[in-house]
Amino acid sequence: MIATRAPTSRPEPFIPEPLWRAQLYVCSALALIYLGWLLVFWPGVLGEDSAAILMEVDQPDAFRSGKSVVWYFLVRVAYGLTHQVEWAVGLAMLLCAFFLARPLAWFWCARRRILFGFLFVFVAAAPHMVYFAGSLYPDALFAAASTALLFEIGLMLRQRHARWSSVAFIAIAMPFALFVRPNGVLFLLPLLVSLFFVPKAMRVPLAAVIGFWCVLVAGVTQWHKSTSQDALDSLVLFETAHLLQPRAMNDLWQQMPDMNDPWVLRAPKLSPRTMEILFAHTTREKIVAYSDPVYWDMLIFHPEGPQLGAIPMAQRKELAREFLRYNLWHNLPEVVASRVNVFLSAALAQGGFPALDYSKVVLPRTNATSQMRRFALDKAERALRFLHKTSYRARWLLWTPFVGIALIGWCLWRGVQQRDTAALVVAGAAAIQLLAIVAFASAGEYRYLLPFFTLPLALGPLLATRAQRESVAKVTRGTVHHNAL
């Protein structure tokens, strides 16, 4: 028998070198695009959530925006010291560029140039991604940081090793990936899992980074109390209000009770205690009038609406218990249909977005000294408005989060088939995040799903390297078979 010889081709390392140099170049390119956009739409796009966080910085003892403490202190450092909004917007944009550059640099160094170009143009530098990065909302920063964090976790798990550069990058990304939005804390799970797969020498510094940020954020939150919305509380108020909507067939059955047997459809749709709490606060007609299929805002914030957020906390906890005990199970099809409706409204970007000129409405309500369109780049503004409008018209395709969602399923399937821990942990964390959004989102906002638009940057390397290893294995088996003959 002729001796076998392994093929000379080898899979490329999962961390191509020099990654840091490519990351610097990509970050610089993204920063030029982002900051160029900011120069045109100076001082950035501001919406009602932007107004709220600026007012909290202006009046920290008298006002709470409901945003996370990490987002508050980021805006406080950048805006509070200067009272110029553009510093806060610019800092957030630079952080987005820094985080997205890391996985993009991997594609470049791994010689996946077509994928690099596609992801750079249609994800990192996509018009709506730049728009969200340039608005004083935490969602783009959360998407970029969480994507970079999952990418870095994938690096460590695939190699069973953590470099100092990875630990340093996680130290920068962690507060924004985990704590800039309340649901980010779910990404703590894959970080903790990664501790079991890195060498002992790196386990201590990585654990120190994780512990440092968790303790610091917990302590700062006690000092500056946040009024972030409780996910279950908002879900209960939103869905309970929907269940008060009149049903034509139910009204008919009440008028003609003999149409059904005595024991059919006699149970009330909502528990008596639920009705008692709600109607002690407001009327059924007002709740129905201000209930929207995909937004809870009118129920809570409208000055003439039912203002369900003003219900005492003890009674809101009762509403939650009644919802989980009775209301959910007696109306399961309607609740599930509502969840699907909210999710699809967000995924297809059917909600509203702050106008490019809305800053002129927000700025006078704050202590900001920023100037609208300071550089008067009118021609560039018209061109970017046209690009943004064109992108919006094709948002069902160009903005879609379904690519990232599909990659989650692919990674999980491949992870199970190949026993790939990195794919299972990273895609599993993203899947848990997706399920949490579907289950608890109380508004059909596209920005909530922005992390799944950027997710291909984190999952692509896992799938690419696994596919490469499989192709090398096939070449090896073919060579051995040929030599054996």
Structure class: mainly alpha
Largest sheet: none
Strand content: under 5%
The coarse overall form would be globular
Discrete helix count: 24
Low-confidence stretches: 1-12, 471-485
Radius of gyration: 26 Å
Total beta strands: 0
Explained architecture:
With 485 residues, this protein is mainly α. The protein contains 24 helices and no strands. The chain has helices spanning 19-40, 48-58, 69-80, 85-109, 113-124, 127-133, 139-159, 164-178, 188-194, 200-223, 231-243, 248-255, 272-281, 284-289, 297-300, 313-330, 332-347, 359-362, 378-393, 395-398, 402-418, 421-440, 450-454, 456-484.
Topology:
Blueprint: H1 19-40, H2 48-58, H3 69-80, H4 85-109, H5 113-124, H6 127-133, H7 139-159, H8 164-178, H9 188-194, H10 200-223, H11 231-243, H12 248-255, H13 272-281, H14 284-289, H15 297-300, H16 313-330, H17 332-347, H18 359-362, H19 378-393, H20 395-398, H21 402-418, H22 421-440, H23 450-454, H24 456-484
Helix pairs in contact: 1-4, 2-3, 3-4, 4-5, 4-7, 7-8, 7-22, 7-24, 8-10, 11-16, 17-22, 21-22, 21-24, 22-24
